[in-house]
């Protein structure tokens, strides 16, 4: 290291052993990840290629059965809807959390966290009571003179239920980003003649986008693997891939096929994220420039 | 030399005879177990939880007290979990309760071929003992209909269940996993086929009949859901397990069964391949088959006992759903076992496609 740059890495220079520290500190997490995610994932990939014999037969089967492709596509469509609903519902809420005083904020945080602590199964069953044909929403509609709407066992019902279960995963990252946005920037923009809407779209929204992306990715990925909610709130036309995996593995003992389905879902997700990444990054940079 | 060999042989023969005599002496009697014979041992019974497994535990209470065994309960039965145990050579499930078909489909692979000299199967209803299983209890899948909806013109059979023109209304079907062979056979009859001569291609025809019920059809995922559908009146006609049907009616659901061709279901008791103490598992099975145990099970669950001597004392609401009366026995419909066992996987796959909206 040259003397002209004395402050850059003094510690690393003085004691080279310290470079290992960050790795040593993350070791428990890395070991845990390898043990509970890496190894099982590897097993799944291997089983998808080796059962009942070595080869690609499980993948050939997956792409040869129309039902699998329909359900795969449906899984992504439902997840996209859930993500969209979450963004629309969470954005104003997270903004409100940054705008109010500490006491109201505490109430708002609790409103997010308490359902978060309640099991997803319990929340889904509550949605059954609300959404079913003889349920709360339909009784209210009927007593108000409207005809009932079909909510349970439809895709709409599944999206509503999933969005509610996943909402905290959108609100919390959004809030953490919005919290860091200096609200005086909005005032500055307005003082320079921007209408409030203009100030929002050119200043606030771009600055908050990293939170939207973070939340959207978490919600989207969690949605893809949902099992309980579509099973309880959906009908045959809202079955998602996890249900098919369950049938293959638990009822038919076709671990290879189940594995292949999981791998296809994983790879498709990676591809989609890879396609979305440049968009997110460029927006991010743009936001930074502005 | 020759002499010693002959001596040796006769000794072996004598031993053999003695052993046979001993075994003949200890011919098992259903429901009985030797005092303290399983002291210090542990057995794990795997079943489906809820009132059913509670009833099984109650039925086995005497066995536990007498034999000194520690009985653990686990569940629910999942064939994939059992397979994982058998493959890894670490089987912790000693006695497993399953649906009708698995012991026949996986006989010798996941479930042991049973040695009937270790069990007293003399009181089991005829034709119910399999190569790898004895029955756990009998019950039925029954067509329940909303009495307020159909009033004077109720559905009488599965043909009416599949006839949405004559009998409009929402249908509820068991979508908890595997297809019900008996229901598909009834559907195939509606399509003009003969279930006794069913072929693999006919499975599609049968499933098409189910599919034609339309998009409003509810495929319930759990017994509890079927019960809830009856109690809230969401479905007008429901395919239900008798235990759940009984509970729904008890809870005030305005539904009543159409018994014609109710589908006979026989849960099975099995011993997995590779259990640590096979004889202990046999002892549990043998105790379970006893008259007293079966009476307790029936009284607690409304499920039909599988010991011919059992005479459970049940109240009227439970008795209404017992399936072992002479009248019910005449109305029952047994699925074509010989067809479904080899075609289990194909049927499952086609059914799964229907379940996924295809």
Automatic annotation (TrEMBL), chain A:
It comes from the Bacteria. It is a multi-pass membrane protein. Keywords: Cell membrane, Membrane, Transmembrane, Transmembrane helix, Transport. Residues 72-276 form the ABC transmembrane type-1 domain. GO terms for cellular component: plasma membrane. The lineage of its organism: Bacteria, Pseudomonadati, Pseudomonadota, Alphaproteobacteria, Hyphomicrobiales. Belongs to the binding-protein-dependent transport system permease family. CysTW subfamily. Its main location: membrane. This is ABC transporter permease. GO terms for biological process: transmembrane transport. Gene3D superfamilies: MetI-like. The chain crosses the membrane at residues 23-46, 76-94, 106-130, 158-178, 199-228, 260-280. InterPro entries: MetI-like (IPR000515), MetI-like_sf (IPR035906). It is found in: Cell membrane. The keyword Lipoprotein does not apply.
TrEMBL record, chain B:
Residues 1-24 form the signal peptide. One of its GO terms (biological process) is thiamine transport. One of its GO terms (cellular component) is outer membrane-bounded periplasmic space. It is found in: Periplasm. InterPro entries: SBP. Its main location: periplasm. Gene3D superfamilies: Periplasmic binding protein-like II. GO terms for molecular function: thiamine binding; thiamine pyrophosphate binding. The keyword Transport applies. SUPFAM superfamilies: Periplasmic binding protein-like II. It holds the Pfam family SBP_bac_8. Keywords: Periplasm, Signal, Transport. Belongs to the bacterial solute-binding protein 1 family. This is Extracellular solute-binding protein. It comes from Mesorhizobium neociceri.
């Amino acid at each position: 290291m040259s003397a002209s740059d004395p402050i850059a890495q003094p510690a690393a220079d003085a004691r080279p052993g310290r470079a290992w520290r960050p790795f040593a500190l993350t070791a428990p997490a890395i070991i845990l990840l390898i043990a509970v995610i890496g190894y099982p994932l590897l097993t799944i990939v291997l089983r998808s290629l080796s059962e009942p014999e070595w080869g690609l037969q499980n993948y050939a089967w997956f792409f040869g059965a129309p039902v699998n492709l329909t359900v795969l596509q449906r899984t992504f469509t439902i997840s996209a809807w859930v993500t969209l609903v979450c963004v629309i519902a969470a954005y104003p809420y997270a903004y409100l959390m940054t705008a109010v005083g500490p006491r109201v904020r505490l109430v708002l945080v609790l409103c997010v966290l308490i359902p978060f602590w309640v099991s997803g199964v319990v929340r889904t069953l509550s949605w059954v009571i609300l959404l079913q044909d003889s349920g709360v929403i339909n009784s209210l509609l009927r007593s108000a003179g409207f005809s009932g709407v079909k909510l349970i066992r439809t895709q709409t019902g599944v999206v509503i239920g999933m969005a509610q279960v996943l909402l905290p995963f959108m609100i919390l990252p959004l809030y953490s980003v919005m919290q860091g946005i200096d609200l005086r920037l909005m005032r500055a923009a307005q003082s320079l003649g921007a209408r409030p809407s203009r100030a929002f779209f050119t200043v606030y929204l771009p600055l908050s986008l990293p939170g939207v992306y973070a939340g959207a990715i978490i919600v989207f990925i969690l949605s893809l693997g949902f099992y309980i909610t579509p099973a309880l709130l959906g009908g045959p036309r809202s079955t998602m891939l996890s249900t098919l995996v369950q049938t293959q593995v638990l009822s038919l003992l076709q671990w290879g096929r189940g594995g292949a389905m999981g791998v296809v879902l994983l790879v498709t997700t990676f591809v989609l994220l890879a396609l979305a990444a440049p968009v997110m990054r460029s927006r991010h940079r743009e936001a930074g420039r502005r | 030399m020759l002499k010693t060999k002959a001596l040796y042989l006769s000794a072996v023969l004598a031993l053999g005879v003695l052993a046979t005599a001993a075994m003949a002496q200890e011919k098992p009697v259903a429901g009985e177990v030797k005092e303290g014979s399983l002291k210090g041992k542990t057995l794990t019974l795997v079943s489906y939880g809820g009132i059913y497994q509670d009833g099984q535990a109650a039925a086995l209470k005497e066995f536990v007290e007498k034999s000194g065994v520690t009985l653990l309960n686990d569940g629910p039965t999942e064939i994939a979990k059992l397979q994982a145990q058998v493959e890894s050579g670490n089987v912790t499930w000693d006695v497993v309760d399953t649906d009708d078909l698995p012991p026949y489909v996986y006989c010798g692979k996941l479930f042991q071929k049973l040695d009937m000299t270790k069990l007293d199967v003399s009181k089991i209803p005829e034709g119910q003992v399999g190569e790898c299983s004895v029955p756990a209890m009998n019950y039925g899948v029954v067509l329940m209909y909303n009495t307020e909806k159909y009033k004077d013109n109720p559905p009488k059979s599965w043909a009416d269940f599949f006839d949405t023109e004559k009998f409009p209304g929402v249908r509820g079907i068991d979508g908890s996993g595997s297809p019900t062979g008996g229901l598909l056979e009834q559907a195939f009859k509606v399509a003009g086929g003969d279930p006794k001569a069913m072929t693999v291609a006919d499975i599609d025809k049968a499933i098409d009949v189910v599919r034609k019920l339309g998009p409003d059809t509810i495929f319930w995922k759990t017994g509890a859901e079927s019960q809830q559908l009856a109690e809230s009146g969401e479905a007008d006609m429901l395919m239900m397990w008798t235990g759940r049907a009984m509970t729904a009616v008890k809870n005030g659901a305005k539904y009543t069964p159409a018994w014609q061709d109710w589908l006979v279901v026989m849960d099975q008791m099995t011993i997995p391949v590779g259990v640590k103490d096979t004889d202990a598992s046999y002892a549990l099975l043998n105790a379970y088959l006893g008259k007293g145990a079966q009476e307790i099970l029936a009284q607690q669950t409304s499920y039909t006992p599988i010991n011919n001597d059992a005479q459970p004392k049940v109240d009227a609401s439970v008795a209404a759903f017992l399936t072992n009366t002479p009248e019910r026995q005449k109305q029952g419909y047994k699925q074509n076992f010989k067809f479904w066992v080899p075609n289990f996987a194909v049927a499952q796959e086609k059914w799964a496609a229907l379940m996924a909206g295809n």
